[in-house]
Amino acid sequence: MVSGDTKAIVDWLVAGARPASDTPLALSELCDRLLGCGFPIWRVGLFVHTLHPHIVGQRFLWKQGSAVEVNSAPLEAFQSEEFRKSAVRRVIDTGMAVRRRLADKDCPVDFTMLPELRKQNVTDYLAVPLIFADGAVHGATFATQDARGFTDQQIADLESIAAPLSRVVENRTLRRTASALLDTYVGNQAGARILAGQIRRGHVDAMNAVIWFSDMRGFTTLSNQLAAQSLVDLLNRYFDCQVPSILDRGGEVLEYLGDGLLAVFLIAPDADNARQVCKAALMAARESRDAIARLSSRLDTGVRFGLALHLGEVSYGNIGSRNRFKFGCVGPAMNLAARIEGLTGRLHRAILASDEFARQCPSEFMPVGEFDLKGFATARNVFGLTDEMEQSAQYRASDEHMYSPESKD
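Below the sequence we write its predicted structure tokens.
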């Protein structure tokens, strides 16, 4: 039976814990309400599994007088001996609450964290299961430094709070999971649009951006030489040479196209930051080129890539058939970037740029020729980096050794 003082907290949780919009805010508000009802809480934690490619769960930790801390745990942490012997792991595995009255001399100190909590003068510790609608079990912990510990009624109240608290945490976790998965699989820009309800087919926005179009040279040859798993591992390592630099410099990956990669660096509507964005994209390009060169030096099968940088307007939005959409980019600017990238093998260059991009970084580029590009009525000037003049000969010799210089997948 929930005590009268705690019923208001339960009602607040059942109503959705408004206006707290995320888990840290909800936890902070919950702890304030518990303190207001006389609960001598000093430390409260939530431990929630999450569906994410890199992390297995998150911990939200409140301490009296401090803001809520949020920590992410990789898969290795969940499998560690320390977590395996924790009270939270016991709760997750059994779905049963665990209490330890650490003030009692004969209290078993049988879980990790308990010795440390006792050093911090914790007198009573409770871990309870948070059971989501799909049956998945998560955990919440409550600790006090009060010499008397928790009363039996307070323990009963905390256990009763667990069910409505589970609903609150689950609702916020679902949105956080959806956002993380969308960011992972379609990118931040597309993910934000989807969550905002821009899901109708044909909904398209125009944006001014630096377009990054890169491709692995000789991929077909490699795919015929390597086992399937080895090829996937190589692709992942290859993309790891590019994506961190793109993200660090303010870009966003929109799509993986087999061995190709499409990214954009957004430019303000008035284009007053165009030069700054182009310089950032070029820094990312050089970092990627150098990282791929280092990767290639460590492999038996060499790796080369071609990259085109262009500045222009693209149309970005929902494209597809009735029940299967994707956020994609279309437009002449995209096509031009792809055509320029196709010249990298012929010209033995790693990085090429359009006239529009090169004008923003004039000291970095030199013209390499005027080319007729498929789909374009007039020939286009193409520019190469000045620091690749000498490297071009090295690329040529290396490429001619590994692949045909005309190879293009």
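The longest helix spans residues 152-186.
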